[in-house]
Structure formats: structure tokens, C-alpha cells
Amino acid sequence: MSSYTRVALVTGANKGIGFAIARDLCREFPGDVVLTARDEARGRAAVQQLQAEGLSPRFHQLDIDDLQSIRAARDFLRKEYGGLNVLVNNAGIAFQTDDPTPFDIQAEVTLKTNFFATRNVCNELLPIVKPHGRVVNVSSSQGSQALENCSEDLQEKFRCETLTEEDLVDLMKKFVEDTKNEVHEREGWPSSAYGVSKLGVTVLSRILARRLEEKRKADRILLNACCPGWVKTDLGGAHASRTVEEGAETPVYLALLPPDATEPHGQLVCDKVVQNW
């Protein structure tokens, strides 16, 4: 048995759903919980808030848009814990519907964080995830909606069981390019940068799960995407139907799947139920 303490890390955890996930893991996960945030002051303030509740998270600065920051977190986890047991990729952004920023800029900025940066976190941290590890990518049912609103040709590509990570990256880049050239609708894309970014996260989760199955089957690592629902956060807005605590339920459920669990894996899960894709 490894002498290392078990460890769970949550990205974008200084507020909203990420904060609620970190709080629940502090209560339920048998090990250390690392709360990460891009802004150090806000992250430390969040840690203090949880400490005031009698919980004891650790803080580590992590800006998922910065590859060096991701690698620094990876090195910290390696050195302190010999790897990672639970990864919750929660960090993400969304423009408000009335934001005047041109759509092509919204597309570029949203995909940069929600898809490309999340992919970088997975690529850097998956190799250090230990056997029976759990990886949860916070996606959205808006990703599924975006898929429904894609052309049949694009739907076929995204649903293809043999789609590679490189193919997916090319598709995501093409969406950004098509918005720049003002042809995205003609090319079969929906007009939701957030939806397309989360579609990318869900499909990436399927691809990464398949790769784990091929390369590390014996390690029984489970990797899934989930939809927390429409939650009252800066991102979801005040009219949302769920509290952050309710939004945290499915991600935490997936993060704490028992060691002998074999599923779900590579799925999109809402309200603890696997969704048809």
C-alpha cells in the first residue's frame, strides 16, 4: 500500500459549484482536498471560509489557461502525494446573453478556457491519476443541446465512436475559425459558444475514457462528464432553479464512486443518471 495521503483536486473552486464541490469533498472524501483558484486572494478567502466551518482544505493556485500553472500543480501533487486520486475539472466561463462582445471573440475566449484549457489539465494530470482514480469533467446539457442544433454531418462526426482527440481539436478550432469568417451557421454550427465548448468537453470525456480503457484498463479509473443542472451562480444567474449545493451533488457522486465500481465510464451524467448520447 502507498504511504501517501489520498488527494482530490477541484479547479475553479473559490466560488459557485466548484466551492460547493470542494466543501462536500472536505466532508466526505477520505483524504486531502485541494481547492484551486486562478486568483490567489480569492482562493485563500474560500479556504478560510471552509476552515470557519470546521473543514480543512488546502489551497493551490491554478489558472487552467496557463500551462505552466497546470504543470506547477502537477509537480506539487507528485511531490506531496505521489499522484492524484480525484480530479474535478470545474473551472469554466460563460458570456451573459446580453454581452455585446462580438460572437467570434466570445467563441474564441469561451473555447480557450472551457475546452482547450480543460483538455490541457486532463493531458497533464491524467498520467498521475492513481489506480481507482476518479475524473469528473463538469459539462452541461447545453452541450447536448448544441449537438442537437448541429448539422447532421457534424452530429455524425461528434457521435462517431472512433473520433480521435486530434479530430475533436480540429472540429473545435474549425468552429472558432468559422465564427471569425462569419460562416458558422452555414457550416452547420449552432450560435452558442458555451454550448459548443461543453459539447467539446463531453466528447473529450468519451475519448479520454476510451483511451484509459485501452491503456490502463487494470487501473479501473473512471472518467465521466456531468451536467450540474441550472444553478444559481455568477454563470447561471439569479433565476436558476438549483442551489450550488444541489449543483454539486452529481459531480461529488461521480468523484466518490466506490473503488469496485466499473461504471459509469465515459458517460454524460445528469442527476446521477447516465444520459443517452
Automatic annotation (TrEMBL):
Catalytic activity, as annotated: a secondary alcohol + NADP(+) = a ketone + NADPH + H(+)
Keyword flag Oxidoreductase: yes
Main EC class the enzyme belongs to: oxidoreductase
Coiled coil: none
Keyword terms, alphabetized: Cytoplasm, NADP, Oxidoreductase, Phosphoprotein
Protein name: Carbonyl reductase (NADPH)
Top-level taxon of the source organism: Eukaryota
E.C. code: 1.1.1.184
A Pfam family this chain is assigned to: adh_short
